[in-house]
Amino acid sequence: MPSPVTVARQCLTPEASNALDEAVGVACRRGHAQTTSLHAVSALLSLSSPPLREACARARNATYSSRLQFKALDLCLSVSLDRVPSSQ
Q: How many Å from the N-terminal Cα to the C-terminal Cα in the chain?
């Protein structure tokens, strides 16, 4: 069951609350009625000091450059977000 952003924000740290606000912004810009985990991941990658990007860099596969991995992740997220139905 979806939670209102104001209720969810009460349970979060200030950093997490900022990430949630960014995720809501991503959903709004794309015309999506609800904010999903895809929006959250996209927002986490776009923050000025992205903890998700840093974690991915630490866990990267030596076969592929981290830059290439981030491009692939961004592409996958973009395609997935394009498939989320827009609100009417």
A: 20
CA distances from 49 to 29, 37, 82 (A): 22, 19, 25
- pTM of the full structure: 0.69
- Strands of 1-88, DSSP E: none
Q: Which residues pair with 86 in a beta bridge?
A: 32
The answer to whether the beta carbons of residues 36 and 84 sit under 8 Å apart is: yes
Look up residue 47 and give its amino acid: L
What does the pLDDT average to over 15-25? 88
Residue 4's φ and ψ, nearest 5 degrees, are: -65, 145
Query: Cα separation of 69 and 71, whole Å?
Result: 5
